[in-house]
Input
Amino acid sequence: MNSDVQIAGDPLALPHLMPPPAAHPATVAEFAGLARAIAADTASWAPLVRYDAVTRWYHRLRTGPGYEVWLLSWVPGQGSGLHDHGASSGVFTVLRGELAELSAHGTRHALGAGAQRVFAPGYAHEVVNDSLEPAVSLHVYYPGLTEMPMHRPPLCASAVRPSAVVTS
Ligand SMILES: [Fe+2]
Output
């Protein structure tokens, strides 16, 4: 131990010598960038992932001023049901595997690893793993998710009886 070393003064009184405060995202682009940065840092999330065949697994990975980052896993066949996110906006990124996102209007997006979707408050969708491999996704919500109202799914085309089809 070197007893000759002394610290003169209070280092906290010298703000110009302090490291800058951690930057937090404040725009949609910055939240999307945060999601991409976490996705690229596999060591920060991969060891945490669990798969649960009984119920969907999720883990709050990070929080910041007004936002939350969640890690979700999906075994084949698991899905969210059609829902919105209350007052929250969000960014959702596939980390591993493939997921399908279905909009309330029936539009389907096939999302492979690295694919990213951004949504505004009130946007309704359903996310499902209809592949044969497990999948992992990352979800950023701003503000943090406090409700996830479920919606009734739209009638799918196969539910329409042939007699209802009108031809000209
Ligand atoms: Fe969602």
Observations:
- Residues 48-155 form a domain with the Jelly Rolls fold (CATH 2.60.120.10).
- Helices lie at 28-40.
- Residues 69 and 117 are 14 Å apart (CA to CA).
- The pocket of fe (ii) ion is lined by residues 80, 83, 85, 125, 127 (CB under 6 Å).
